[in-house]
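=== Structure Prediction Worksheet ===
Name of assembly: unnamed complex
Input type: mixed (protein and possibly other molecules)
Chain count: two
Listed entries:
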Amino acid sequence: MSAELVLASGGIDCHLMSGCGFPAPGAEIFQFDAVFSFTVGSLEFNITKVTILLFIVVVVLLSFFLYAFRKPQLVPRGAQNVGELGYLFIRDGIAREAMGKEGDKFVPFLFSFFFLIWMSNFVGIVPFAQIPITSIFAIPVAFALIVYLTWVPLGIYRQGFGPFFKNMLFPPGVPKAMYGLLAPIEFISNIIVRPFTHSVRLFANMFAGHLLIASFSVATFYLISASLIGIMGSVASFAVTIALTGFEILIQALQAYIFTLLTAVYISGALHAEH
Amino acid sequence: MMNVFAALSTAITASGGEGGEEMPSVLAVPIDELVIGIIAFLVVFGVLGKLALPKIKETLEERTHTIEGGIKRAEEAQAEAQRSLDEYKTLLAQGREEASAIRTQAQADRTAIIEEARTEARAAAAQVTAAAEAQMAAERAQATASLTRQVGEMAVGLAGKVIGQALTDDARVRATVDDFLADLEQQAAR
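=== Predicted Assembly ===
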């Protein structure tokens, strides 16, 4: 349990039977004070624990892949094997799956997203770090914004402004009378809601997972008291915390995969009119 | 899009109202964090996309080519082996054919040689036989002649002694003797 959480959970003396109510963790566990701040132009940058973790993730990620692919051999060994596994997973499992051979061009884009998000999620269960970077809403929003600013211009560039919107708003094979209803729905769902759901899906999963683990961690701590019920409850909460942590590992990889797969699907839709 | 987020976060903050201390909503999107997020991605994308991933892409393509090349080389080697086998088989068939022709030829030659030798031997034998026969005939004629004369003389002598007359010069006697001899010859010839 991190220091913030101990503080958030009502202090070191807050236990069952001590006249202290259960200090359920809330939104405050996702708030971090600035370690330091600086100003660029008119924008003030607050460097928090999350920002520093993101920086570390970026450095670790780049170090690993630069090391793994520093001198690729025809017969791979060691780190190159692991890196290749990741590369082939993105290329064959996501890019080609969504776009076919054309997807090869977008492999670096998708690769960067997948591993950056996965590692950012993974930080949530790393001792002392213990906050998924992606549970800070601005980060998934930043990623979704990049995706949005990629596929929309790409679609306009590839299909032309008119056809791009025509294909999106008036999908073929629908009775003409339906277009009056369908076109606004398509517009809202693709242009307005899509980036929102894209970021919220990732954010909400990581947020909820972290909150769950935090709640059971706090419960484990809170229930330690001189009573049988308290001890049993504490042990049970601890077991659930461990189980949830295992479950989180799965969710972290899955959410990174979903985000990347959706990115590939959006790009694929921008390259060719849906039929 | 930003407006949507802003509106939503305000709404949630407003409804969440825990009172007391002002707590920014979890849905707030501070611009600095947004910018940092974007920079983080761009750095990862830029470095990996420029430095790491092209290398591995190249290596993977090279590996594919190597494997495909290996398969192609193996196919070529197999075709080459097949061609050699065909060639070998053709040569072998040719050799067999040639050997068989030579054998047939030899057979024919042998027959011819034997036939020739036989003919020659037969001719030589015939010659020898003819020479022997001729000699025998000559010898017989000579013997016959000498015998005839001696027998005539002996007969005349004998007759002279029997009759007591000299019949030597008598023409009649000579005729009688000739007749006798002719009879004798005839008997011999028969």
